[in-house]
Amino acid sequence: MHQETNVPPLRTPPPPQQPTGILQDAGEIAVVTPNTGETRHRYAMVVAFESEDELRRALEEHRCSYRDGQAVEEMTHG
Question: Which of 2, 27, 38, 45 has the CA that lies 20 to 30 A from 14?
Answer without folding.
Answer: 45
